[in-house]
DNA sequence: ATAGCGACGCGAAACGTTTCGTCAAACAGG
DNA sequence: CCTGTTTGACGAAACGTTTCGCGTCGCTAT
């Protein structure tokens, strides 16, 4: 509760000098510096961030907005981000958009009112004029994560989905799979679009014709995947492998298979873009990509800090973090 | 960016009147009220929370500190808490203590400096003089979640662990299990202590002598459970059932069993206090308690708001939220 | 009539910082 | 020796609110 005034009184200098000593914004003689620091220690002074923010117009807080923190991927992202930012003296305001663009915009507004220094957003990417409204509503350094927008207004960090799709398709192809089902999410969401595009491209490269009835879209809720997988597996000529792009799909797919009395990999191979699922001890252990969240967070923090410090304001850039393929036991070779 | 001054100018009243209108802190005639509200709408005024905080000495932000957000239970808690508080106009500062008391204290300090209106903490509950240091460091309405402290200085909300243990033991007993292994966490952490105590008590009640070599403590890391389960299952007389108190234990246990070539429920039954694990589609589907996180969050929010509004300051109370038993397929009957 | 009171409105101080502009002293170059 | 510049320190204003205390008005009860 000690204020800067107490320090000034104690050190027998002006308030201005104390501030200058702390922030190094003006020259202070070594003698005074020593006196001031001593006084600070003696009265146990800690600058009041609120007052500082009011005066400077910007805080030392960054805001994180994710669609749903209860998704393991998002939880790990939050943890990793918090670690990255707390290391450099920032703390985190946190909100969940519940995958609702309106909530997202409102959270952005609230965070802006709180003068956050920067924003990390996993954008919902949906709704009329989404991109324009986002640009309109954000007046703070911002980095987008996981999903990129067609207009490059913001720095973005995302998985290298094309590469990931390539790894998945090539792996399945090597195992002999030709009838591959792909569940895409909503169109317009880059992570889904890119994964689908990568799937198509790599299938092309390997010279396998895609059976369009095996490409289902949009499938983004657990229950949709649950229903979809049952449709797929009751086709006259069912797929030999199913690709899931996220955890909701994977959970629905596994439950749906179970409901049919089918299991992976015996009846069908299952592979996932999302690596946050039980890996050991449960059967089957899902072969999946592993996202490099630590790198994603670090890169995002770097981009954001560069903008905040205004070191330079280059064109917004997109960083793609390569995933790795973790081969487990949910895929088997077919004739 | 409109300030209260702009509103005052526009409505042709004083700044004081605008403030009084907004906050209802002083009588304002209906005529002026109307003018002021109109002006507010016209200039698009939003009060600046920072300035308000500075003047009032308290913010509209509450701080959440959990040991590890990447644990599904904690992620769901965060989601639920955020929902509960955003509904009543509060937003959330968030931090992870990484299960380190020092970090926890430091986070509390940072949040206090930011003048949070209240604190929700899942306390690490470890270290010298923990309780005393906590009381010392916290000068803000606070509610503890999941873990209670021996000294009742704070409101607390926690699972009804005695009841949960009773449900688990009775269920296992009904299935014929007598040789039940129990992995406890660190001593001193109430959630673990209570679960163990409940286990002992209910075993007593059912008249089954506990085989002490099957009670292992402390086991709180995944790898400890991984190792422990292998010791347990290679005893001359191994347990027929294993009780896990949290997700780390469960993951380690399942992996450890897999490593031995054993599986649940064929070789041993497995049951868990923590309900956040894959339930459908994977084998085995773990029979577990289901924690009622929504209720936990609501109760915590209620307790905290009561303290913040100073409606009354009764003795700190402990609320215990009853879990429910979800029977799945990881336990089987034995002779 | 007038003292007293409630309702209403305002100016100014306060919250704890940072920063602007000023000033004295010390120092450099001619 | 004078001028111009740098260094070091400070007082006061500013950030955008809330709140304290005061003043004015109209009403009621004496």
From TrEMBL, chains A, B:
<dbReference type="InterPro" id="IPR028082">
    <property type="entry name" value="Peripla_BP_I"/>
</dbReference>
<protein>
    <submittedName>
        <fullName>LacI family transcriptional regulator</fullName>
    </submittedName>
</protein>
<feature type="domain" description="HTH lacI-type">
    <location>
        <begin position="2"/>
        <end position="56"/>
    </location>
</feature>
<keyword id="KW-0678">Repressor</keyword>
<dbReference type="InterPro" id="IPR000843">
    <property type="entry name" value="HTH_LacI"/>
</dbReference>
<keyword id="KW-0804">Transcription</keyword>
<dbReference type="GO" id="GO:0000976">
    <property type="term" value="F:transcription cis-regulatory region binding"/>
</dbReference>
<dbReference type="InterPro" id="IPR046335">
    <property type="entry name" value="LacI/GalR-like_sensor"/>
</dbReference>
<keyword id="KW-0238">DNA-binding</keyword>
<dbReference type="InterPro" id="IPR010982">
    <property type="entry name" value="Lambda_DNA-bd_dom_sf"/>
</dbReference>
<keyword id="KW-0805">Transcription regulation</keyword>
<dbReference type="Pfam" id="PF00356">
    <property type="entry name" value="LacI"/>
</dbReference>
<dbReference type="GO" id="GO:0003700">
    <property type="term" value="F:DNA-binding transcription factor activity"/>
</dbReference>
<dbReference type="Pfam" id="PF13377">
    <property type="entry name" value="Peripla_BP_3"/>
</dbReference>
């Amino acid at each position: 509760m000690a204020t800067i005034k107490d320090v000034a009184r104690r050190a027998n200098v002006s308030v201005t000098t104390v501030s200058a000593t702390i922030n190094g914004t003006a020259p202070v003689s070594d003698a005074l510096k020593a006196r001031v620091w001593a006084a600070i220690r003696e009265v146990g002074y800690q600058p009041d961030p609120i007052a500082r923010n009011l005066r400077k117009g910007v805080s030392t807080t960054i805001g994180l907005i994710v669609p749903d923190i209860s998704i393991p991927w998002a939880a790990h992202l939050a943890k990793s981000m918090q670690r990255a930012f707390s290391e450099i003296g920032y703390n985190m305001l946190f909100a969940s958009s519940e995958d609702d663009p309106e909530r997202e915009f409102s959270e952005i507004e609230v965070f802006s009112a709180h003068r956050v220094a920067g924003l990390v957003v996993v954008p919902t990417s949906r709704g009329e004029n989404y991109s324009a409204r986002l640009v309109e509503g954000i007046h703070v350094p911002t980095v987008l994560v996981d999903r990129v927008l067609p207009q490059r207004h913001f720095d973005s960090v995302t998985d290298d989905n094309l590469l990931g799709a390539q790894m998945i398709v090539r792996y399945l192809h090597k195992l002999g799979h030709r009838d591959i089902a792909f569940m895409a999410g909503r169109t317009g969401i880059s992570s889904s679009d890119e994964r689908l595009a990568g799937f198509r491209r790599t299938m092309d490269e390997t010279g396998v014709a895609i059976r369009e009835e095996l490409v289902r879209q949009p499938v983004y809720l657990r229950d949709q995947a649950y229903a979809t997988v049952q449709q797929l597996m009751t086709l006259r000529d069912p797929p030999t492998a199913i690709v899931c792009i996220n955890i909701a799909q994977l959970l629905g797919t596994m439950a749906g298979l179970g409901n049919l009395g089918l299991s992976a990999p015996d009846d069908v191979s299952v592979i996932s873009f999302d690596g946050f699922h039980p890996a050991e001890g449960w059967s089957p252990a899902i072969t999946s990509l592993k996202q490099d969240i630590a790198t994603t967070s670090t890169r995002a923090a770097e981009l954001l800090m560069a903008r905040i410090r205004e070191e330079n304001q280059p064109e917004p850039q997109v960083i793609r973090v390569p995933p790795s393929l973790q081969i487990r036991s949910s895929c088997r070779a077919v004739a």
